[in-house]
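To assess whether ligand presence alters the predicted conformation, the chain was also submitted together with dioxothiomolybdenum(VI) ion. Input:
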Amino acid sequence: MDRISESVVKKDHLPKVSGRSVYVADYPTEGVLFGKLLHGKVARAKVLDVDVPELPEGYFYVDARDVPGDNNVNIVLDDTPVFCRETVEYIGEPIAMLCGPDEKTVERLRDACVVHYEEQEPVLDIRTADHVFFDYHFGHGDVDKAFAEADKVYDEEFETGYQEQAYLEPQGMMAVPEEGGRMFVHGSAQCAYYVHGAVMRVLGCGPAGVHILQDVTGGGFGGKEAFPSILGCQVAVAAHKCGKPVRCVFDRREDMEYTSKRHPSLCRYRVAVKDGRVTAMDIDVKFNAGAYSTLSAVVLQRGIIASPGIYNVPNLRVHGSAVKTNTSPCGAYRGFGAPQTFFAVEMMMDHIARDLGVDSLPFKEAHLVKQGDATSTCGKYHFPVPIPAMIAEVDAECDYRAKRERYARPQTGRYRRGIGMSMYFHGAGFTGSGERDLIKAVAKLRKYADGTVEILASNGEIGQGVRTTFPKIVANELNLPLEKVYYDHPDTARVPDSGPTVASRSLMVVGELLRRAAIKLREQWIDGVEQEVEERFREPDFMIPFYIDKFQGDAYPTYAWAVNAIEVEVDTYTGITKILGAYGSFDVGTPIDYNVVLGQMEGGFLQGIGYASIEKMDYDAKGRIRNNSFSDYLIPTTKDVPNLKCMLHVEKYPDGPYGAKGAGELPLVGAPGAYVEAMEQALGGVRLHHAPFTAEDTLAVIAKEGL
Ligand code: MOS
């Protein structure tokens, strides 16, 4: 193990476990108004009027008319309103915010508001939705010829559901008007500069008119990538109107019903096979975006780029679309579009293999990409693809091949077993040219006269460890003890824009900027004086430029890789599945702290297992999300998967700090493919097409198949 990988105590460990950390809800309440959103109650309607009760002194009703700038939240596009326009487009859409000094009174006033709607028929079904937000096509080769010449053509559909991020701390933002008219917005967020750009536009002020601080954040998992921009704008508008600080912290119910979740998907795969090999794939990927476009463009891009899996497909045609429905807008969640398509392609490969009379593992192995091969977008896998070695590691850990063969034989009795495997990548960093063209990250180091060094960057600690790993990198280059280097929560008034905390980019991209900055500082170091150095992102030379209009080039500089195996035992009396073991080999390059990375892999893998098995969320016939608490949306805990084994395989990336590459999202992506394949085996070889695959689904198969 490299020295940099040796684990230290996380810098935020003690304040967090001792309860001393100050989250947005913990700031003193003195002089701060409570903000409570009036959420729309129907999925699609014209809002005719709102009867607002008489407001006591010091209480305010804030809506779109109070927005001093644009009533649009800057995300990728700007169709998301701060407060609703003439219509509501989903249940929960914010119509107004009630503000005042006493929480119960604010709630009472909010609940006394009567909204008059002219209701319209909501569009809820992804299959019939006809408004397309985003639509992409790409591919290569001659797909029609390959289908015409095929021995056999497969045509199947796969579906995945919502997934709720279920961070411990719900969404919360606070806005404080400062002396001189500047607005200070702080709260639970992944991307301080995203909130900055959004609030500026809504207040109609310049960059200096507002600053954003990321508070201690109790988890994000993507759920705090875009949503805090919306809530940040709402509290900022409210504070602007009230002339006082306004804080809005969601309760769990609001958070689960109305904030962004993972996109449900519907994927159709048509696959041509000749002489036992896949010769073409014709893939249609559809994501349910919800009522506004938010991040769907980029989520969809990542999803469709991953849609042929990690297999060589000589002829490829991909169509992806994100469609509008009158439901809560979906957004980022760890994996960002890729878990959906990797599930579909892994199941598709499994079904083809079985139809050809071979096991899925050797069939997949025969199609694996390797270094130098073209990617789905005609870029290149520039670096080694360590999947064969990782399959061997997982096999050694759980005896995969032998169990796979054993469980394939006919089973009888109450308990039936199965094992399945998935293999996949996660494109490290932003998709396409975003890093080069949009983000243009800048990071700084400031050395004080006493020899301590402060990191100035905008990447937030969201549990992934950047407050520890960034200082480790800098301390390492400067030969300083770790206590001498620190990284505070970013405030846009103090730190440059090193980009958002997303896409598994922070450590790989910004960590490398900091490493280079530290080398620069070391070379210029003068004792006893204050010094500052800066580094800017430059794209690695080897990259084949990506063009979004053609959907061609290197979508990512490099890839993190993983192999997952999951072993299950189904109780055919109850439909309940016990997970006997979950085994993963993960390559995220050099771990910049072994325990931090291991924790990420274990937590992410467990989230993926939840997504695959028990995390079922849906809306009813009126478009209302039916699960709004942790008693009717279950997430797994360590007790559900006691035998979870993660191994780190290290394939160093030369352009990441000490060989590190993107880590955060990888562990979640592959679980559904492995889990559902295992369920197929335990259920006597049925072909399954959706995730999550729950106990109810299991019982239905048992009844249908007479198992
Ligand atoms: Mo992340 S899912 O790119 O916020």
